[in-house]
Specification:
- The protein is mainly alpha-helical and 1279 residues long.
- Among the domains are: 13-97, no CATH class; 135-282; 297-384, no CATH class; 387-415 and 509-599, no CATH class; 433-494, no CATH class; 603-721, no CATH class; 1046-1194 and 1203-1231.
- Helix 40 (806-854) packs antiparallel against helix 42 (870-889) and helix 53 packs parallel to helix 55 (1106-1117).
- The longest helix has 49 residues, at 806-854.
- The model is unreliable at 99-111, 415-420, 498-505, 1194-1256 and 1264-1279 (pLDDT under 50).
- It is found in: Chromosome; Cytoplasm; Nucleus.
- Residues 841-858 have a biased composition (Basic and acidic residues).
- Residues 98-191 form the Condensin complex subunit 1 N-terminal domain.
- Residues 956-1116 form the Condensin complex subunit 1 C-terminal domain.
- Residues 1207-1221 have a biased composition (Basic residues).
């Protein structure tokens, strides 16, 4: 058993051999170096046999090793250390509890360091708070003590878990210890240095250090430490910050956190950081400025110094709105948004900052644009002016108040005092002697009677203000009525005091004038602010269709905010974002739906009825004057509203029916909007309309249908929403019997409209025929009767005659009958290919399902066709062939439709005889609809339709024909393929409406791969410069979409350049450059660039004019040429070197070299410079002279090496112009030969004298090449 010892911790190593107390453990014997190895071996054996308690016996050995540490062998020291570690580990294992217990119980015997550490820190805090300075001489605490304590604290802060939530108590204790050391023990400078070092090496300590510094500044009153740390950071150069990397992020986070905690303390020292606005921590500095402005320098109670500091900081922010770095510009806008949201921006800065923000909407950086939109939305939401920001509504009040201000200023001039020539002092000296005598006389006792006599003159006892009394005395003095002046003064002393007014006379007028001036200035600022908002709306509306999702979302939110504040033209943005409900991006779609719910579907009201009324009013206002596309988009949102369960639905439907039926006085536009909204609700719930079908027929399709065909048309659109075509039903088709009241109303309304000339009958008729085919049983029979009835009515009208304008009415009636024929033909084909075909498939499916059920359960054998799925495919092909045969053989043989076809051809081919515009338009449209029936009809009349397209003087006819030909191209592509150039020719039509229609149709055909992209696409490129902005934007959209197809524009570019640079076209150089700049922006791949360089260089050989050379050179300069492209440019030197004397060729090629030189590597840069010298030499001296000089140089110095690309030697350059190298394949590089033009026979329209001549293309003009297009067969009509 070992005896009990007291082990006292030594202050130094020598204390272990000094005995100072009873039972104190001390070293008994210090061994020599020679004795140590043997004792170490004994130590090892004792550790194995006795365990860790052997240290009590062999502690002298371990001490001796430590004592001779400098001289003892390394192996002895290592063995000793290993023995001590083993003993330590064995001691720990003895402290652990035995058994399978919980972790908490298992560790009960161990030292709980976390709790002990916190306890030690608290004890240390209490100790340091005592006055322990007397423990040192001269009451000066030694630096070693301060370092010992603080180093422990800083070491604890380096723990990676110190910033965790669970370490908060330890973290706070460390901060308090260091705070005491900073305040009482002169540790401020050391703390500053240590904080900087911690931030440089431990990025996660930014928030901890910020909290510590804030605590030292606020709780311990050491505010100077904030300035010291800021100066330390501010004195670091940009190079140092750039090298530190993570330290910069830590500094930024630290300063940002600190500005949030103690912003007022940072104001005096913030100037030291302003130098870093151009460096690495600029975003942090901007954030700090915002914190100071929001939390300290805000409000109206600032003194002059604070106001000057605020203005200086705002000017600094304003300067960096146009910073060179995009992230800084974005950060500044975000800082301004925070300031505006906190209402800390002075009113005088609103207009200026608003104007700068609107300018940032055109920034190249998407992030900056997004931040600008957010700031503008914040300006509107927190504007100090008005809840309605319409400049139109502000104009009249501003003009009224300005007129009032002018009147007040004019009247104020009448009260101005006239400046006297004699000064008041001179006048007083002149009257003073006489005035003294009068005062003495008045003060004598006998003067009271005279005073009474003067009461009438002075005004008696009438109450006056002090100012009025003074003015009266002054007036008496000027008039030398001194006695009266004395009496007035004496009466003031005798009279009781009178209440004084705040301002009287002219002072009141001046106060009102100032108020009026402030009001006018306020209205001016409000109007200016509203104009800036309206200006921004036009820009942001265009951002709704950007490809960046976040920008689109911010634009949507801005439009919502602007609409809520009644900004002028804000409804345009709300309508423009409506098509985004079809966006494939779910985020954008949800943003638009939420925006419309917020604006229109969440009304405010006292009760459900009031809310429903408001909701209907909002939607009705949106639908008034809305386009068809807008209505379709709104239909998606409204149908979704009615699909979800809501307490408002029943009330909304009730209000809509009341408006439509006319129970309450309603405008015609609102009635139409109501019935359309009912149709949108019917998409979600069919019974909304189906249960009230009789009401719809009686109100809109009854006897008064002719009074409002637009209401009748919209009613038919609503009824169509209950059909299977709209609802996409897969069950038994929903149809009404032929004798239903609805169809009798429709037949009667169509027939009555034939004898009238209502311009809206046409659209009503089209919707009526569509509804008949959608909803009626046997719609072909109904329409056949309708055609027959219409023809009889027209014949009766013709036979009656007698009126002067009867001829015009007959032509109008004939046009309407032909329109009806075309609509019936179109929807008859659609009915066959959609409804009949779908019904055949449904019945076949039911039959197959029935047969499948009837099969025996053990019938496992199946034919090969069934396994391969060919049975269903064969049956479907049979159905398609059946429908096709009906269209080709039965639709136009022996029925009412076939009877009108010769008449249509006659009217279209004889425009001289049938010159009525309505008749011509209807006939051409109907003929194109007939041509959709079968290929035979299309072939027979295609030449006539293209003749109408080229020769018709009516733009509406040409535009309609283009649309019809686009549909025919989809349906019969092989027939229309030879006529493709005729379609492209309409892109240069003189009418803007025709060009617009042509570009829209061709865009659809090309992008959907119905029509092959050929060289004629150069006509679309010309439209990039169209004077109509809408046409130019459509052309730009065409190329944007076309660029998404692999190599499409790359393959077309050489041919487009050749066509546009053709001398016969005569395109201006500026226009050519603008078009090429846009097209070459789509060439982004290096291989494409390299190939185009070679192709364009080869085109120099076939170019014949100087302008063509210049165009090719400009095209080359627009490419982003890289090293490989530059190599190709050098290899093709022979193609263009003889043309370098032309400035139009030399300058673009020189610009290519200049751009390459700026970003080239040193070795490659030398080649570029040599190429530049070569270009300049040829341009100034001529190719022949340069060749001779080079030849002489080569002969004189055979050792020199030429860094230029090798060139073949030529004797005379001109003899080789225009000849290509034999090894080149010119099939892909040379512009195709110009085809020989043939004069086309003149085509004249028939006149009144030549009624029977047809204006049809001659047979020679008909294209003979009918190359079939490889594509799947299209037999169904597309809509």
């Amino acid at each position: 058993m070992f005896m009990s010892w007291d082990f006292i911790l030594p202050v130094c190593l020598g204390d272990l051999v000094k005995s100072g107390a009873v039972n104190q453990y001390v070293v008994q014997d210090v061994l020599s170096v020679k004795q140590l190895p043997s004792h170490i071996n004994s130590f090892k054996a004792a550790l194995r046999s006795q365990g860790p308690l052997c240290i009590l016996e062999y502690f002298d050995t371990a001490y001796s090793v430590l004592q001779h540490c400098r001289t003892v062998d390394v192996a002895v020291k290592e063995d000793t250390l290993e023995l001590l570690i083993q003993g330590y580990i064995l001691n720990i294992s003895l402290c652990l509890s035995q058994g399978r217990k919980k972790d908490k119980v298992a560790g009960k015997g161990l030292l709980q360091w976390d709790s002990e550490r916190e306890t030690i820190l608290q004890c240390l805090t209490q100790l340091l708070q005592l006055d322990i300075r007397t423990l040192w001489s001269l009451s000066l605490v030694e630096e070693e003590f301060v370092s010992c304590v603080t180093c422990c604290c800083y070491k604890l802060l380096e723990n990676p878990t110190i910033s965790h939530v669970k370490s908060k108590s330890t973290r706070d204790a460390i901060i308090h210890v260091l705070g005491i050391m900073v305040k009482k023990y002169n540790h401020m400078l050391g703390a500053c240095v240590k904080v900087i070092q911690l931030l440089q090496h431990f990025e996660q300590l930014a928030s901890v250090c910020a909290a510590a510094v804030a605590s030292w500044s606020s709780e311990y009153g050491v505010k100077a430490i904030v300035g010291e740390i800021m100066r330390e950071i501010g004195q670091k150069s940009s190079e140092e910050l750039a090298r530190e990397g993570s330290g910069v992020k830590a500094f930024s986070s630290f300063l940002s956190e600190l500005s949030t905690l103690v912003p007022e303390t940072m104001i005096p020292n913030i100037s030291v950081l302003l130098t870093h606005l151009e460096g690495e921590v600029q975003s942090c500095v901007l954030y700090r400025i915002a914190s100071v402005l929001v939390r300290v320098l805000s409000g109206d109670k600032l003194d002059d110094s604070a106001r000057a500091s605020r203005d200086r900081f705002l000017d600094t922010l304003q300067e960096h709105i146009h910073d060179a770095h995009s992230h800084v510009r974005a950060r500044v806008l975000q800082v301004y948004a925070r300031i505006v949201n906190s209402k800390a921006l002075p009113l005088c800065k609103y207009t200026e900052v608003m104007e700068l923000t609107v300018g940032r909407l055109g920034d190249k950086s998407v992030h900056v644009c997004k931040s600008a939109i957010q700031l503008l939305a914040a300006f509107i939401a927190h504007n100090p002016y008005s809840c309605k920001l319409s400049s139109v509504d502000l104009t009249k009040p501003l003009e009224k108040e300005m007129a009032k201000l002018k009147e007040m200023r004019d009247s104020q001039k009448d009260f101005a005092f006239v400046v006297a020539v004699i000064t008041a002092a001179d006048l007083w000296d002149a009257m003073k002697p006489e005035l003294e005598m009068t005062v003495k006389a008045q003060l004598e006792p006998g003067s009271e009677e005279e005073d009474n006599e003067d009461e009438e003159e002075t005004g008696g006892d009438e109450e006056r203000s002090d100012r009025d009394t003074a003015l009266q005395i002054a007036q008496f003095l000027r008039e030398s009525k001194y006695r009266y002046a004395c009496n007035v003064l004496l009466n003031c002393f005798d009279a009781p005091p009178t209440p004084q007014k705040e301002g009287g006379g002219n002072e009141g007028g001046e106060s009102e004038l100032k108020k009026q001036e402030m009001l006018v200035q306020y209205l001016k600022d409000t109007e200016s602010f509203a104009l800036q908002v309206e200006r921004s709306i036009a820009v942001i509306n265009n951002m709704l269709y950007w490809k960046t999702t976040t920008v689109v979302q911010e634009a949507v939110q801005f439009c919502v905010t602007a609409f809520e504040f009644s900004v002028a033209n804000s409804v345009c943005g709300v309508r423009k974002m409506l098509p985004l409900v079809w966006s494939t991006d779910v985020t954008i779609k949800d943003s638009v739906i939420q925006a419309y719910r917020r604006l229109y579907l969440n009304p405010h009201g006292d009760n459900t009825r009031a809310k429903a009324q408001t909701l209907v009013d909002n939607l009705s206002d949106l639908m008034i004057d809305a386009s068809l596309g807008t209505v379709q988009c709104l239909e998606e949102i409204v149908s979704e509203f009615f699909s979800s369960e809501s307490a408002l639905q029943t009330s909304v439907v009730q209000v809509l029916w009341e408006r439509f039926s006319g129970k309450r006085e309603t405008k015609a536009l609102h009635r139409r909007a109501a019935v359309l909204l009912l149709g949108m609700a019917a998409r979600a719930e069919r019974e909304v309309v189906l249960s009230n079908l009789d009401t719809l027929c009686s109100v809109a399709l009854g006897e008064k249908v002719a009074e409002d065909y637009l209401l009748a048309r919209d009613t038919l659109i609503t009824i169509a929403n209950i059909t299977d075509h709209v609802r996409q039903s897969k069950g038994v088709p929903f149809r009404l019997p032929m004798d239903h009241h609805l169809f009798s109303c429709l037949s009667q309304a169509i027939a009555d409209g034939l004898v009238q000339s209502d311009p809206h009958w046409q659209t009503f008729m089209e919707q009526a025929v569509r509804l008949i085919y959608f909803l009626a049983e046997s719609p072909d029979q109904l329409c056949s009767r309708l055609l027959q009835r219409s023809a009889h009515l027209l014949l009766e009208q013709i036979t009656e005659g007698g009126e002067p304008n009867q001829s015009q009415l007959q032509e109008s009636g004939l046009a309407q009958v032909l329109s009806l024929c075309g609509a019936v033909a179109f929807w008859q084909v659609s009915h066959l290919e959609r409804s009949v075909s779908a019904e055949l498939r449904r019945r076949r499916g039911e039959k197959e399902e029935k047969e499948e059920k009837e099969k025996a359960p053990d019938a496992n054998d199946s034919c090969v066709e069934e396994e391969l799925g060919l049975v269903g495919a064969s049956a479907e092909d049979t159905e398609v062939e059946f429908i096709r045969k009906i269209c080709e053989t039965e639709l136009l043989s022996g029925n009412m439709l076939s009877a009108f076809l010769p008449l249509l051809v006659k009217v279209c081919s004889s425009p001289g005889k049938y010159s009525h515009s309505q008749l011509t338009t209807a006939a051409c449209l109907a003929l194109s609809q007939y041509m959709m029936i079968s290929p035979a009809v299309c072939k027979d009349n295609i030449r006539l339709l293209f003749t109408v397209l080229e020769k018709s003087p009516l733009p509406v006819v040409r535009a309609n024909t283009i649309v019809a030909l686009g549909d025919l191209t989809v349906r019969f592509p092989n027939i229309l393929e030879p006529w493709t150039p005729n379609l492209y020719a309409r892109l240069s039509d003189e009418s803007a409406s025709v060009r617009l229609t042509a570009i829209m149709v061709l865009t659809q055909l090309v992008l959907k791969d119905v029509m092959k992209v050929k060289g004629q696409v150069s006509e679309v490129a010309v439209l990039l410069l169209d004077p109509e902005p809408h046409i130019a934007s459509l052309a730009l959209n065409f190329f944007n979409e076309l660029s998404a197809k692999d190599n499409a524009i790359y393959n077309l570019l050489p041919d487009i350049i050749s066509r546009l640079s053709d001398p016969e076209r005569g395109m201006k150089e500026e226009d050519f450059n603008t078009i090429m700049k846009q097209l070459f922006s789509y060439i982004t791949k290096e291989r494409q660039t390299e190939s185009l360089v070679e192709k364009l260089c080869q085109r120099f050989r076939t170019a014949k004019t100087e302008q063509q050379w210049a165009d090719l050179a400009v095209s080359l300069s627009l490419l982003s040429v890289c090293e490989r492209g530059f190599k190709k440019l050098q290899e093709c030197w022979d193609c263009y070197s003889d043309k370098l004397t032309e400035p139009g060729v030399y300058q673009p090629l020189l610009s290519i070299a200049a751009k390459l030189r700026r970003r080239a590597k040193p070795q490659f840069k030398a080649h570029v410079e040599d190429y530049e010298k070569r270009l300049t030499a040829v341009h100034t001296k001529g190719l022949e002279n340069v060749d001779n000089e080079e030849r002489e140089q080569q002969m004189g110095d055979t050792q020199s090496q030429n860094l230029q690309t090798p060139r073949p030697h030529k004797s005379v350059r001109k003899t080789t112009r225009g000849r290509g190298k034999p090894k080149l394949d010119d099939s892909d590089l040379v512009t195709p030969r110009k085809s020989r033009s043939r004069p086309k026979p003149a085509i004249t329209f028939s006149s009144d004298e030549e009624e029977e001549d047809d204006a049809v293309m001659a047979e020679s003009e008909t294209p003979k090449v009918t190359t079939p297009i490889a594509r799947t067969r299209r037999t169904r009509l597309r809509h």
